[in-house]
């Protein structure tokens, strides 16, 4: 962001110099002043539009060090996309298909978008032999917003000091679970979730666990962790969502090494980019070769009627714009998914999922 602001200012200054050379002495001061005002206006607009790296960096002080993956994003950017994306309607339909619990979760999630409260997010994934832990810190989100959204979803809240628990949240398996937060201040909230490997039930997050994490962060935070700072340096933090890290310590550590990626959004599309080390010899090249054959499989859409043929055209456009390559074991990709493509593909996916559920 700082580099962009400096570049814009320099560009405006150069324009000012060129104009002055062509004008008489009486106009030099006036034109230079106008150019300076224009530079300030452009730089100010750019600063306002871009995500605040400084705000996100401040959140790292509340995140314990020692994690294998760091991620984050800017909620405002994603909200702008989500409100116009077919994914919003698809998600709400899937949630409502779960009955009252799904409807409540849909209302809860929609509330987060509607209040537009959460701005910046940073998080981490820490892994061990038996499982892992996901941690997140939000700015622009406090106890009042969480309680408001919980009420809209039909969930109950329990507050005790800085500890806030939301109960009655569907666990995705027909039961209920609770979600716990630590309210750092009125504008900053911390989240922790146990993530055991093998499908075991996550341990319930308690106030004591959250307080222990806060103590851990005060002693050694992500802001001072050299390894996590190195991960951050590889991430494209200008995007709506980004991640960087390593699969070390996970069940796939023998197959995947280090990697980073991002999700970018605008009003009409979602873009995905990544670069990952595939440790299994030859697999990166095999993935590229397999993707190169994808276009030859589009003919099967011809048998799905007019809608299938329309989807075929959009899918070909997607493949033409897509990039997947490898340099040795490093696999790099970039893909753009338009709302137009999603509008055609999601109903088919929904029908297919309905058929699978009906056959169970």
Structure, explained:
It is a single chain. With 360 residues, this protein is α+β, with helices and mostly antiparallel strands. It is 46% helix and 26% strand. The protein is built from 12 helices and 12 strands. It has helices at residues 2-22, 25-49, 53-59, 75-82, 86-96, 100-115, 143-152, 207-219, 226-234, 283-292, 305-321, 339-358; strands at 69-74, 120-127, 131-139, 156-160, 163-170, 176-185, 188-196, 241-246, 256-265, 269-278, 323-327, 330-338. The chain has a 12-stranded antiparallel beta sheet, with helices on both faces. A hairpin with a 2-residue loop joins strand 4 (156-160) and strand 5. Helix 5 packs antiparallel against helix 6 and helix 6 runs antiparallel to helix 7. The radius of gyration is 24 Å and the shape is globular. The N and C termini lie far apart (52 Å). Residues 1-52 and 355-360 have low confidence and may be disordered.
Largest sheet: 12 strands, antiparallel
Spatial order of the strands forming the largest sheet: 4-5-6-7-3-2-1-8-9-10-12-11
Instruction: Give me the Rg, rounded.
Output: 24 Å
Question: Per the principal axes of the C-alpha atoms, what is the gross shape?
Answer: globular
Unreliable runs: 1-52, 355-360
Structural class: alpha+beta
Query: If you average the pLDDT, what whole number results?
Result: 79
Write the element-wise H/E pattern from the N-terminal end onward: HHHEHHHEEHEEEEHHEEEHHEEH
**What is the helix fraction of residues, given as a range?**
40-55%
Number of strands: 12
**Approximate strand percentage:** 25-35%
* Ends apart, CA distance between termini: 52 Å
Number of distinct helices = 12
């Amino acid at each position: 962001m700082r580099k962009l602001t400096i570049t814009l200012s320099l560009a405006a200054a150069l324009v000012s110099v060129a104009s002055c050379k062509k004008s008489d002495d009486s106009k030099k001061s006036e034109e230079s002043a106008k150019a300076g005002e224009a530079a300030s206006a452009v730089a100010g607009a750019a600063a306002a539009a871009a995500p605040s790296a400084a705000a996100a960096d401040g959140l790292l002080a509340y995140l314990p060090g020692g994690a294998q993956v760091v991620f984050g994003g800017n909620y405002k950017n994603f909200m702008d996309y989500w409100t116009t994306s077919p994914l919003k309607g698809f998600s709400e339909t899937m949630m409502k298909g779960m009955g009252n619990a799904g409807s409540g979760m849909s209302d809860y999630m929609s509330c987060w978008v509607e209040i537009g409260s959460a701005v910046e997010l940073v998080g981490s994934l820490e892994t061990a032999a038996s499982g892992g832990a996901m941690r997140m810190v939000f700015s622009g989100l406090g106890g009042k917003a969480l309680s408001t959204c919980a009420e809209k979803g039909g969930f109950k809240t329990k507050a005790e000091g800085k500890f806030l628990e939301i109960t009655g949240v569907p666990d995705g398996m027909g039961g209920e679970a609770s979600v716990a937060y630590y309210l750092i201040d009125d504008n900053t909230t911390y989240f922790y979730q146990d993530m055991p490997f093998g499908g075991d039930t996550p341990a319930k997050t308690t106030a004591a666990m959250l307080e222990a994490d806060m103590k851990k962060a005060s002693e050694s935070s992500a802001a001072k962790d050299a390894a996590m700072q190195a991960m951050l340096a590889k991430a494209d933090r200008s995007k709506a969502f980004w991640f960087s890290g390593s699969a070390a310590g996970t069940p796939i550590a023998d197959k995947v090494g280090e990697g980073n990626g991002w999700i970018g959004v605008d009003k009409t599309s979602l873009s995905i980019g990544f670069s990952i080390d595939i440790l299994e010899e030859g697999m990166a090249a095999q993935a590229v070769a397999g993707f190169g054959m994808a276009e030859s499989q589009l003919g099967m859409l011809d048998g799905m009627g007019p809608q299938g043929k329309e989807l075929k055209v959009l899918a070909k456009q997607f493949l033409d714009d897509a990039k997947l390559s490898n340099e040795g074991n490093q696999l790099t990709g970039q893909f753009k998914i338009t709302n137009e493509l999603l509008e055609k593909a999601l109903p088919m996916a929904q029908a297919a999922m309905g058929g699978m559920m009906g056959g169970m």
